Amino acid sequence: MNHSYQQVPPAYSETTAIPVSGDDGTENIFKVDDFVSESSLSVRMAFVRKVYSILTIEIFATIAWILLLQNKPSMQIWFFQNQWLIIVSFLSAIISLIILLFKSKSFPSNFILLSVFVSSESIVLGYVTSTYSQIVVLQALLITLGIFIALTVFTMQSNYDFSDLGPMLIFGLWGLILVGIVQIFVPFSSSLEFVICIFGVLIFCGLIVYDTFLIMKKLTPEEYILASVTLYLDFINLFMYILRLLGNNDN
């Protein structure tokens, strides 16, 4: 399943009443929340811990559901016989994600919406991956995890400014969306499918780097939920393109 990628929106955070001393020693100056990159080291580290702790839970909850369904043929049959649940889950994932983008800093609404989104997304992914062999799914999961970790470490350790990648990646993403729409009506050959999957893998590898860089530059420390969802979507889409690529070769 392909999902429209949501580019991390600019953070429009409310002004926080944090008094700082002026030149005359008074405390009547108020400061707007800093972006993560402008915060102290302790704040940056706390933000990273929150983002990747939540992201780890999201990813492994989804993987657990996928593997459970892979080992329960009776559940697979039930889902194929009750496809209305897949449609409901798909719509639930989209709606909860849209609302979450506006409620990312509203506790506990953000965690409730996050749980609904990940649960709905996992149900749909479990249904889709059940059409592939277990070995192909495991290979795709391991490859995706390896690539994601490697790109994350690379980006965190690099001093390079990756913001210039944005326009090119977004252009490529819209290309993938357009191709996906066309593919619904006009099935592609296996060779063209292979090329599309390679392109999709490259785009989402780029987006993992770009978004990892961007969440530190464009989000405030309170927007850790939004950051984790952004990276989760990158992970899931990369996984799906790798799965399609391996599945195409397996077939």
UniProtKB/TrEMBL annotation:
Ranges annotated as spanning the membrane: 51-70, 82-102, 111-129, 135-156, 168-186, 192-212, 224-243
Keywords on record: Membrane, Transmembrane, Transmembrane helix
Stretches assigned to coiled coil: none
Protein name: Transmembrane BAX inhibitor motif-containing protein 4
Membrane topology note: Multi-pass membrane protein
An example Gene Ontology CC term for this record: membrane
Organism: Smittium megazygosporum
Keyword presence, Membrane: yes
InterPro entries: Bax_inhibitor_1-related (IPR006214)
PANTHER family: BAX INHIBITOR-RELATED, PROTEIN LIFEGUARD 4
Pfam family, one: Bax1-I
Organism lineage: Eukaryota, Fungi, Fungi incertae sedis, Zoopagomycota, Kickxellomycotina
Family (UniProt): Belongs to the BI1 family.
Subcellular location: Membrane
